[in-house]
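INFO batch 0412 | record 1 of 1 | parsing
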Amino acid sequence: MRGGGWSAFARPAGSRPKAGATFTGTGRCAPSNPASVILVGNGPSVLLRGECGAEIDAFDQVVRFNWFAIRGFERFVGTRTDLWSTFGRGSLPRDEDQRPQRAIYTHGKKPKRFVFPVRETYGIPRPFHDGVRAELQAATTRTGEARAKLLPTSGLTVALWLLRAHGLRELTLFGFDHFSKKESGMHHYWVPSNFKKPAEHDGDLEAVMFAALATQGRVRYLSKAI
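INFO prediction complete | emitting tokens
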């Protein structure tokens, strides 16, 4: 793994990063900046942004989510995985040969045991997850039960955890479609079927939140001219 270890900003649940702690490493970023980190989402736009696989693999750290797939999509999504984000409940990378050795659990105490052996495991503290959820519930236009059941996506939770709790200056996003159906009715890039937007997430609101972060220079979206 390039540029040092994940322990600089992905600490076990219940621990706090040291004041001013950042993930400093070598690679494409200047020495005074955190290492370059890309979050690769599962939205179908990965097939519409050009063949970005090589560029993704050039990042110092590559984060993937839940049931991510690589086989057959290498030229679009790359091949490296340095950190696997999972919400649990049996979510597994689609390809049997993809069993990342570093995993982060997105809401609360990390599981005592993952469904396959993982060398390093971390947990985003439940209060942090619940705080992000409260932000969404306060800002959404939904009401009643729909508002009460609203949850942040894994992508938003991990992005804010790295930016807020661990001081990363910037993240790059790829495959973060926020469940928009403007370009494709698909839900995941490896499933050709069309799906409705998930009721438990507010993709439009999360898109607004990420747009604000982009304006602040905290995130950018990776795209290649095609």
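INFO post-check: The mean pLDDT is 81.
INFO record closed
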